[in-house]
Amino acid sequence: MNLVWIDHAIILLYLIGTLWLGLWISRRASKDLNSYFLGGKTMPWWMLGVSNASGMFDIAGTMWLVTVCFVYGLKSAWLPWIWPIFNQVFLMVYLSAWLRRSNAMTGAEWLQTRFGHGRGAELCQLVVVVFALVSAIGFIAYGFKGIGKFAAIFLPWDLSPDMYALIIFAVTTLYVVKGGMYGVVFTELLQFLLMTIAAVAVGVIAMQQVSPEQLAAATPEGWDSLWFGWNLDLNWSGLIDSVNDKIHNDGLDLFGLMLMMMLFKGVLFSMAGPVPNYDMQRILAAKSPSEAAKMSGLVSLVMFIPRYMMVAGFAALALVYMQPEIQAAGAGFDFEQLLPYAIERFVPVGLAGLLIAGLLAAFMSTFSASLNAAPAYFVNDIYKKYLRPQGSTKEYIRISHLVSVLLVVIGVALGLLLESINDIMQWIFGALFGGYAAANLLKWHWWRFNAYGYFWGMLSGLIASMLLPLLWPDLQPLLAFPWLLLAGLIGSVAGTLLTPPDDEAVLMSFYRQVRPWGFWAPVKAKVLAADPTFFPDQTPGRDAVNILVGTGWQLTLVVLPICLVMQQWQGFWAALLVLLVTSWFLKINWLDKLKD
Asked: What family does the Swiss-Prot or TrEMBL record give for this protein (predicted)?
C-alpha cells in the first residue's frame, strides 16, 4: 500500500503513544492483585463500558463482518447471533448485577459464593481455570491470524503475515503485562476514539462514492432486505459466481433453519452468563451491581453504529468497484481479505494512516483484554491458593507476566497451524462456548445443582468441544451445538444426582446475596423462615420483556448504520423509529429500576 510520510508518522506515533501510556500507568497497576486485574474496582462504569466495547471491536471479527455483509447484505445483521451478540442484552438486564454481587476477582473465585469450599468446589474452580486458559489461547490464535493477514497488505514493509503479527503481538504484550487492568482500560479509551473516527470516515467515503443505483446493479434480488424465508434465495450467478459457493460452504443455504439454531444456542448460552474472559472481568471490576449493568448496556450503544458504518462502507465499495476482479479470480479469491483489499483501493492518502492506526487499535484492544483477563485465573485461583499462599504482590504479578507470555507463545503456535479466521471463530463461538452452556445455565437457576455436577458438566462439555474438530472436522459447529449441550447436560445432571446436595448454609447465603430467579423454592423458603423481612426482589417477567425489547433495540443499532451507508432511507427511518421507541421503553422499564 502506498503510504505518505504523514501516514507513517501517525502509525508510529500511535504505537509509541500506546506503549508509553501503558507503561506509565503500570505504577498504579502494581499496588496489589485487585489493582492489577480489576483496577481496584474504582473505575467509572462508562470507562469500563467503552473499554469493553473497544475490546470487542476486533480486527479479525471486523474482517468477517465485512465478508458476510458483502455476501448476505442486510441479512448479515442477523449473523452475529452466532456469537451470540445479544448476550450483552441478558447481561445488562440482570446477569451483570447478579455476577457483580459476589465481589470476586475471577469467575473461578465467584464459584465459592455458589458452591462454597471443599473438594467439589476446588474441582469447579480448577475446570474454570482450564476453560479460561484454553479460550484465551483460542482468542490469541484468532487475533494472530487476523492481524497477520491484514498487516501483510496494508503495512509498507516486505514482511510475511506471521512476522507482522509477531511484531504487533510483542508491542501489545509488553504494555499489557506491565500495565495490568489500568493500562488496558486507559489505552483502550484512546484506541476506541481512533477506531470511531476511522470507522465513520469509511462510512462517509462509501456514501460519497457509491450510489444506491450502483449497489442495486451489483447485488442480487433480496440482498437489500432484512427479511428472509426458510431458504436464503440469494443467487449471485452472473454477478460473482463464487459467492454462491461461499454461501454453500458457510452452510447457510437454509438460512431460516440456521438462524433458529443460532437463536436456540444463543438464548441458552446467554442465560449461562459470560465466559471467563475480559467481558466478565469488566463486570467484576465495576463499582457496584447497578454500574455493572449500565456498563453492559453501554457496550452495544457505543460499539455498533461506528463499527457497522465501517463494515457497510467497505462492503459497498468492494461490491461496486472490485466486482470484475473478484469474478475473474473465481474460487481462488479469499473473501477474508476483502477488508484489507478495500482499504488498499479506496482510502485516500492521508486518511490511511489514521485508519490503519485505528484498526491496529481494534486488534490491540481485543488482544490486550484477553491477555489481561486469563492470567488472573491461574495466579489467583491456582498459584496463590495452592502453591504460594503467603507470596508477595510483587511475586504474584511476576508470575502473571510469565503466564501471559506463555499464553502468547501457545496461541501464536496454534495460529501458525490454522489457515482461516473463520475456522478459529467457528470453533471458539460454536464448539468451545457450546460446551460451556449446560453447567453454567444450571448454576444460576437450579438450587439442587451442586459443585460436582458443575465440574462434570464443564469437563464433559470441554472434552466434547475439543474432540469435535478432530473427530468430525467437516461438521458445522453450530449444528453440533445440541450434541455439545447434551454432553454437558449428562455430565451436569449425573454429577449432581450421584452426589449429595451442597451445604444448606452456602445455598442460603448465595440466594440472599445474588437473589436469582428459577428453581429455588426450597432455599427461598428456608431463607424466609430464617429472616421473614427478606425481600427476594426478583422480576423474571419484567426481565424477559426487557430482553425481548432489548434484542430488538440492539438489532436496530446494527441495521441503522448499514441502511445509512447504503442510503436505504426507508429502512433507515424505520430503524430509527424502532430505536427511539425501544430506548424509551428500556429507560423506564430497566434503567430507572436498577438497584444495588
From this structure: Belongs to the sodium:solute symporter (SSF) (TC 2.A.21) family.
